[in-house]
Amino acid sequence: MSLALVHSRARAGVKAPAVRIEVFLSGGLPHTQIVGLPAAAVRESRDRVRAALICARFEFPQRRITINLAPADLPKEGGRFDLAIALGILAASGQIDAQSLNRYEFLGELALTGELRGVDGVLPAAIAAAGDGRSLIVAAANSEEAALAQHADVRIARTLLEVCSALESGTLPPAVAAATVPVSIPDLRDVRGQLQARRALEVAAAGGHHLLLLGTPGCGKTLLASRLPGILPAASELEALEAATIASCSGQGIDAGRWRQRPYRAPHHTASAVALIGGGSHPRPGEISLAHNGVLFLDELPEWSRHALEVMREPIESGVAVVSRAARTERFPARFQLVAAMNPCPCGWAGDRSGRCLCSEEVIQRYRGRVSGPLMDRIDLHVEVPRLDPRELRDDAPLGEDSASVRARVVAARDVQLLRSGKANAQLLPFELSAHCRLSREDQQLLEDAVERLQLSARSMHRILRVARTLADLGHAQDIETAHVAEAIGYRQLDRGGGT
Hints:
It contains 20 helices and 18 strands. By secondary structure, it is α/β, with parallel strands linked by helices. It folds into two domains: 2-169, Ribosomal Protein S5, domain 2 (2-Layer Sandwich), CATH 3.30.230.10; 188-496, P-loop containing nucleotide triphosphate hydrolases (Rossmann fold, 3-Layer(aba) Sandwich), CATH 3.40.50.300. Strands 11-14-17-10-18 form a five-stranded parallel sheet. Strands 1-2-4-3 form a four-stranded mixed sheet. Strands 5-8-9 form a three-stranded parallel sheet.
């Protein structure tokens, strides 16, 4: 009888909990059994491992083999444990030194030839392994992703034989980050006219506020939304690492060219609630988590499933998506900036100067009612985007201000916020508003009159205060002034009937 212990990592949401692979060889008829709540793909690893060992010229023990994946109550899925299981069998059978495995963790799927294949969730595994003081060995296909964990010792291999040879010599090469070629971001200069919408976009970027664009088809709503990432402050190292970790666990992989660029997600309006919030039998992050520290753009807002939109209400407030299943509950980060776009009516032309809209007031209200009041309440800025005069679209028409110039003002305003409260204005908690958003007696009366006249909720009033604080920061004002309060109230466009 002999026993070997190998370290690996599972994937649970955006975390990488430690898994110990215990391999026990005993007498009896040849049989391999895997226990410890393995999924089907994990149970099948016994056949992949057997073929890989034989192809690598190792001996597969003709004994009773029991493989325990501990802890037993943690679900295990995928082929990520193949390499660790193979090494455990070799160590238990005396074909490699069992002591050489202690300072490593192993992740990788085995081909029948013994070749190592990449798996998802390597980045959080590398970070967790470094925290436990061990090196991580992964497939060469995961090299670029694993290298993002700068304080981790990650080694790469292409075959099982390479790993076994290097356990004694320690000659495996380190993971190397890819040469990043930054991906160009659309420039705000491309947007002609639309001064009010451009101003709202700048305010949203400066304070991290949610934005709704209301306008006729082809007026530039999608164009404006796609320019928001280009005027946002660059992501910090921690924010970039959080976004990369979520992308790693989603199975979509990481684009090295977008490192330090904020995510921009634009799912189609037919996406389900699970696709948006995350889920599945083994929960994976949804679109709102993939947009963490970035922008989530929802076009044609009334066309979305009502259920899909309503599940966003709690994450918008908390910054966390909680996915509960019978056996487990996962929490995914979801601190995103929502930008939504919608037409003013079913035909799209209500309020247009052409007068082509034939929708009745009842039809218009029913169309807008597809988006619930509580969700609309959580959007800070409601802005109408009018159709441009054709003369403004001529080639010789003046271009708008470029993204770099706008970003400079946004970064300056955001720096003031971080110095004052340590967070963007949109994230200020209600009890913090009295300290950072003080109003004069006259401005307080102006706000209260607007709340009463427009029948706004307390949440809407707080959002007006946050927007006014951002306007003051953009204007380099120490205190919120009357003009800032008035402009912030003006951005509650749909609370005033949409202006159409």
